[in-house]
Amino acid sequence: MSNETSATTTRRGQAPRGERIADWADGRLGIYSLAKSNMRKIFPDHWSFMLGEVALYSFIIIILTGVYLTLFFHPSMAEVTYHGSYVPMQGIRMTQAFESTLDISFDVRGGLLIRQIHHWAALVFLAAMMVHMMRVFFTGAFRKPREVNWLFGFLLLVLGMFTGFTGYSLPDDLLSGTGVRFIEGVILAMPLVGSYLQFFIFGGEFPGHDIIPRFFTVHVLLLPGIMLGLLVAHLILVFYHKHTQFPGAGKTNNNVVGMPLLPVYMAKAGGFFFLVFGVISVIAAVASINPVWAIGPYRPDQVSTGAQPDWYMGFAEGLVRVMPGWEWNFWGHTLNFGVLIPILVFPLVLVAIAVYPFIESWVKGDKREHHILDRPRNVPTRTGFGVAWLVAYFVMLIGGGNDLWATHFHLSINSITWFVRIAFFVGPVLAFIATKRICLGLQRRDKDKVLHGRESGIIKRLPHGEFIEVHEPLDQEQLHLLTQHEQPAPLELGPEVDENGVERKLSRSQKLRAKLSKAYYGEDNVIPKATVEEYKEISSGHGHH
């Protein structure tokens, strides 16, 4: 029996069929060598690394649900009279885009749940990307050799914002239509080219007949395609550069301490994907979002109070809302600075975020590779910049919802607007100063713990009557964590004259670089960490009680 079975499955002198197929595929695709070199790749284990996975899994959920929705959505601005199953809307004229959105919500099996999963996944995707980039920024994970990967992540965030905007504009309801009208006003405020751009994008006078089909193409094909390419490039670079890791015992720039990709990491990642999918599905099932049937179809002559964009566009909305309505009229042309200045500030802020890794590298003058992450307290200036940006962002979120703040808390909308105008300039400065002081205080505490140990809470009375608290010495792993960081010296310009008494010519960039370097690593910005000599001197005497 065994010989017959063997004869039916393999030929004499040949490998089994499965092995032959694997050899054939490996000879043409190089699968075996690729798997051998990458499937055992080590990844460190830390909860903050899961933020990027949340963004990745949310993007997958968006793609899956988006494909389902495209089967039933009609991206047309042709007007029809609604006769669907939602009785309150029957007999109302609307676009086919709005009608198909109602059909998806009330007539397609599972359509409303898929719609809400799609929308919630988009919000989670952008939130996860922003928090992930905050983790990368505060820990210095953007340093060489990962500057390009930082740019990829930044572009994913920006494209995600515009993809979200085009997506929530597709139903053509009163809320999204108001947002599109807002964008049209921003485009028209651009000098010289504004009216031409408006006609090019909308295909005529607002609202025209082309904007929804064009948004659909951009939302479904163009932006997701670019984002998918950036995402693949981002993941390839994560594989190519070994993963960053937090400082700890045994962790250096030359190794990675963690778990292999297969089978441990893949099993955990697969389970985490279904967990993310489940949580988003539960949120979508119990928390209504974008109920277009309660808002109604868009009409150019109507607008509702409380019209707000999704949170990720609130910064841009706030800039426009709180900007004074300044205008200049000359030569028959009008410059609307109330809109023009905000639309210039917004991309400038984004560009500053994108190029920050290159600025810090230039200031520091460090060309080495960095695979060990910084503790935010050990880089007070960078941490201060990050917190200052977050404060500016949240202040503008308040500005973007000034009408809701006014109605819900019974406040004057003018008072809120003036608060936002002042806080936008004052708040980040105060946040920067407070953050630096907190970081320096934490550095002092770390130095004290290294030299004197941890407070145990045990009170001891000395022979001469003095009461002291007993300190416990730190173990070697804790000492390494608190002392492993580098403290670069600030760049020095050197003497103003050379050895021959001739005045040295220094460029403005050299002077600026020296000042910025001092702001990062000068005496007022770093607490010198404990030295080996200080530690031995105290630990050998009565430093530890």
Automatic annotation (TrEMBL):
Q: Does the keyword Cell membrane apply?
A: yes
Under the heading Gene3D superfamilies, the entry gives: Cytochrome Bc1 Complex, Chain C (1.20.810.10)
Q: Which cofactor is recorded for it? A: heme
Transmembrane regions listed in the UniProt entry = 54-73, 119-138, 150-170, 182-203, 215-240, 261-289, 337-359, 379-398, 418-435
Q: What is its main location?
A: membrane
Question: What Enzyme Commission number(s) does the record list for this chain?
Answer: 7.1.1.8
Q: What class of enzyme is it?
A: translocase
- Where in the cell does this protein reside? Cell membrane
**GO terms for CC?**
plasma membrane
Q: Which SUPFAM superfamilies match?
A: Transmembrane di-heme cytochromes
GO molecular function terms listed in the Swiss-Prot or TrEMBL record: metal ion binding; oxidoreductase activity; quinol-cytochrome-c reductase activity
Q: Which InterPro entries is this protein grouped with?
A: Cyt_b/b6_N (IPR005797), Cytb/b6-like_sf (IPR027387), Di-haem_cyt_TM (IPR016174)
From the UniProt record, list the reaction(s) this protein catalyses. a quinol + 2 Fe(III)-[cytochrome c](out) = a quinone + 2 Fe(II)-[cytochrome c](out) + 2 H(+)(out)
How would you describe this protein's topology in the membrane? Answer: Multi-pass membrane protein
The UniProt keywords, alphabetically, are:
Cell membrane, Electron transport, Heme, Iron, Membrane, Metal-binding, Respiratory chain, Translocase, Transmembrane, Transmembrane helix, Transport
Q: What domain of life does the native source organism fall in?
A: Bacteria
Q: Name one Pfam family in it.
A: Cytochrom_B_N_2
Tagged with keyword Cell membrane: yes
PANTHER family (UniProt xref)? CYTOCHROME B
Q: Any idea what this protein is called?
A: Cytochrome bc1 complex cytochrome b subunit
Q: Which organism is it from?
A: Streptomyces tubercidicus
Gene designation per UniProt: qcrB
